[in-house]
Amino acid sequence: MSSSSPVLLWFRKDLRLDDNMALLKAVKSGRPIIPLYIVTDERSPYAPLGAAQRWWLHHSLQGLDHALRKKGSRLVLCGGDPASILTGLAEETGADVIAATALPDPRAAAADESLAEALLEKQVAFHRFDGLLLHDPQTLRTGSGGGFRVYTPFWRALNQQAPPSPPRPAPEKLTAPTVWPEGEDLSSFGLLPTMPNWAHGFESQWVPGETGALARLHRFVEGALKGYATQRDLPGVDGTSGLSPHLALGEISPRRIWAAVEERQQAERNGPDGEDIARYLKELVWREFSYHLLHHFPDLPTRNWTSSFDSFAWQDDPQGLEAWKRGLTGYPIVDAGMRQLWQHGWMHNRVRMIVASFLIKDLLIDWRAGEEWFRDTLVDADPASNAASWQWVAGSGADASPFFRIFNPVLQGEKFDPDGAYIRAFVPELAGLPNRLIHRPFEASLAELRAAGISPGKSYPHPIVDHRMARDRALAALARLKGESGEPIKKARPH
Description:
Serine Threonine Protein Phosphatase 5, Tetratricopeptide repeat; Rossmann fold
């Protein structure tokens, strides 16, 4: 077809113009470009993972359309089955090429393969370009040619690769088609919650979109990156990057983040030290490792990596699960985390480990119940990181924390939130307690509780489980799983 026929640029989880190879390749072709986003059924591998991420998507699409209009283009929105929409648009516009960013989620990658075959029958080429990870999971292998199962060798192997290529800036201008296909209004997709608007607290915390992502990156490298190695574990301190929601929908590339962190280190002698840099880059690479695991074990979100855990004696405890979801367990650090999740669609990473340990080990509730709740309520819901991290805490995953490592929620709170700032922010009914009691209100005297305005069991619940008893119960369940032989839990082979 002639060079005047347009390229359909299909945005998915790459909602940015900066460092977007699919976009740059489309521009390089010299053809007109029709930017497109398809809102799919929530069961589709192309869809956001949950309700919180749909809220984010609404605002991110608004930002993307605004950015495209500045470049002389605009975003076409369609809803429905991607195969039908793409073939229809190709026929309507005369496009014979579709460009998109490759998705590392195996479900989405498999759907892409089927879609490419269907499009080829219509004489439409479907080209996909890397950009959501630093390295392709298919090419980073162990010495024996298999997939990595342990993080530290993975980190070393990744660092032995060529450095990530420099990020590419957004093009100055996009060539628009002479005739635009008709799209749909963003409001028609119902991505925002109503009656009630449970996401009203998100707006004070987040600026979705590429502009918000780049601003947050700049703020992080100029601020919290210095001291990150220690501050990252303190939930009462703004010591993390906050970039995970932007990464989840591809509003910023990992290459852009990697480059900005390294540039900051080189720019100023009094900037972040080597430990800060290494610690942050290792966290960025944990996301890569999670996708590596998902690539080799596509059932990671639903099946135990370690098959021995398939017979673990999980408890059916709907009341405990509901108390955990609502932040009413009686353990302040757990409740603060779960309330932060509901209010902001996000939770501090250290607290994620604490609340996950509590659900799995104190309540003996299957990790999959937590994974499902997080994927619906997190704005940074990610199919790989969410599943890998839950299995890590459960002890059933690759390179996992052993099951017998059971967090004491009181001691964890006192260690990482010593002045109670995090508790007071999200469990305000305990704000009047002194620091020595704010993580253990159940040890306060009646007079101390009254002085703090707390009615025990009414304004704040009693603990729903005794941690010491729960710990013993969890270890007993683990012993039964191991059996009388006492043989160690064996890892399943990825497939």
